[in-house]
Specification:
The chain has 102 residues and is an alpha/beta fold. It has one domain. A four-stranded parallel β-sheet has the order 1-2-4-6. Strands 3-5 form a two-stranded parallel ribbon. The protein is globular. The termini are far apart.
Length: 102
């Protein structure tokens, strides 16, 4: 991708830990975030897009601690018991949020 600062990676071939900065956009295969999550060691993102994902609240709070722009499309955030997290709790978990799209 000439001239782009974004890179598409094949998570199956990544053997090292991942440091995510700026933007993180993940979609498709609802378990994809669970697959790559153990490889993420540092998160410094301000724009988070999750589409067609199922994610735990613990994973979401790890990803969202610096997020300013959040987009959730057909994404489910659940607690440790598998219950849905309320929208209020989701928004409270992203203290720097400026823009939110559902």
């Amino acid at each position: 991708m000439t001239g782009s600062k974004y890179e598409i990676i094949d998570l199956e071939t990544v053997s090292k830990n991942i440091w995510i900065s700026d933007h993180f956009h993940i979609h498709g295969e609802n378990s994809l975030i669970a697959y790559c999550f153990p490889k993420i060691i540092v998160v410094d993102i301000y724009y988070l897009i999750l589409a067609q994902q199922s994610i735990t609240f613990e994973q979401f709070t790890f990803l969202g601690k610096k997020v300013r722009f959040l987009e959730l499309e057909d994404t489910f955030i659940k607690n440790a018991n598998g219950e849905d997290i309320s929208l209020e709790d989701i928004l409270n978990a992203v203290p720097f949020i400026e823009d939110f799209t559902l």
